[in-house]
Design brief:
Four copies of one chain form a homotetramer. Chain A has 167 residues and is of the alpha/beta class. The first copy, chain A, has four helices and ten strands; from the N terminus they run βββαβαβαβαββββ. Chains in contact: A-B, A-D, B-C, C-D.
């Protein structure tokens, strides 16, 4: 039985449709609910909710909070998944990598182009992939989406294609 | 084998999530795709696409277009379903009722609070109900949603509750 | 607020896939769980579990139990839906019709060709339709499936087509 | 752009519910349809259909056919996923391992406890995981399911738990 810590920060993957506003918004956390749809008999998943924000609104203070949480769990070698908005996912990833020396566990950033539970969503695919990546990748900061694993300094978002590409 | 004409005008029921804008928008028609998920062996469904608009943007010219289409099919006694945004659904319904004398077929307005294919959507339920209502209701203009059938002059939208209520 | 009683007897609509046996079986009731996926704000649904059987195994004693339950609720004019296996659905329906004189509420039999929650299932469509049919049909014994409502003496199952047809 | 070959042999993951027999059977291939639900922009997936069998019916001649297909693609270093029934998945895996010397690519066996598209199915999760595992694991024969990756000689099926466990 291995432990994986899932750090939730918001982003498109967790957005919900508001019937009152007609917009998609970060109102309630969705990660726990969708994790229950996966079978994880050999894995203890611990979710940590830090914030629930569109990643365009993330500040350096928010990134510092993420960093502290990662540091805390990395000390014991626990693999981590961070769910995050795609617009500044690489920014947060590089922020972490620059401040985490001698990292002893993989830290895998993931998110979605379409919210969990919406038709054609990539959210559950990315969550599934990042949990497996957290188990088998070497220590380091990674981004996992759409059946691809990128070292955090080799990846950028292509907005028109609505996906991440190698840089 | 009975024919039902489904007149598509847009509204929340047909909205899609745009990965480029992060908003839900009326970009592509969705009714045909979701009708294929229903079993309708004794029914010939003919869909007519008139427009794909948020109902707050519907004009009287749009309503006139709907009216003409309804008149055309009502002449032969063909039951009709109209998919429509909820914000002005009753307005369009009353517009039709006031101009359709001696209606010989049921005209059933429906829509959704959450777009088809989004988690917890009521779209397919409402589509299913309105197709059955079109088969068994008496001639007249009706609104069918959430297991309730309202004569068009007895119903109003309650925005906070996100549903229609008797008036 | 109207009450509808849903009487559950089993059948394909409630079958589940057993990972131990590799077969689909009537193990746990499914109707309540799927009813929660529908929006029924103006309706009080009361489910009554009588049995959970493949309808080929239903006996006349089982039909008598159904009859007693229907009688009890029909006295107050409460509409009813009966979920039932398709193989003997018409047999049970005729059994009820022959023994219910002066019926004051609609009794709507329904079921499914593929269990609720399996890909391409017709279960939720049929459940949705039968709940609406229960609200708007005249008193009598009916069968509602696949956007069609049949008087119970005018319908038979076509096994090859996997649906009900007019007789 | 990397290529992954997906070799389809049947098993529970591909079973469908037959409305005529009321049983789940290996009638039509399902892997291609479900692969289309995943986003694989950096991956070229080539599916190869060898058979569509319950794995209890697989013969050594069938395993020889799988072996030949694996050999053909392994020569070029192409990672492979094999979808397979769970009852004899380890048997096929060991058969391959014993006959593949100097394997230059990962070969990942996967399957499902509940067929793709049935409620609570683990099929899409396992397919997602095995495709990622095929990209990042070292050469060798592996089994990937339920967020766990096992070397083929360290795993056995636990029928009561309906999952694979370490041995």
């Amino acid at each position: 039985m291995r432990t994986i810590v899932v750090i939730c920060t918001g982003g498109t993957i967790e957005k919900v449709y508001s019937e009152q506003s007609g917009r998609v918004e970060n109102l309630d956390g969705k990660i726990d609910g969708y994790l229950r749809m996966l079978r994880l008999p050999e894995t203890r998943v611990v979710t940590v909710r830090l914030m629930n924000k569109d990643s365009l609104e993330m500040t350096d203070a928010d990134r510092e909070t993420v960093l502290e949480t990662v540091r805390e769990h990395a000390a014991g070698g626990t693999p981590m998944v961070i769910t995050h908005g795609t617009d500044t996912m690489t920014e947060t990833g590089l922020y972490l990598r620059d401040r985490l020396e001698g990292l002893r566990a993989p830290v895998v950033l993931t998110g979605a182009m379409t919210p969990l539970g919406f038709e054609r969503s990539d959210g559950l695919q990315n969550l599934t992939e990042s949990l497996l990546a957290a188990k088998i990748l070497a220590p380091g900061v990674w981004l996992a989406m759409h059946n691809e694993v990128f070292p955090i300094d080799k990846v950028r978002k292509d907005r028109e294609l609505a996906r991440f590409v190698w840089k």
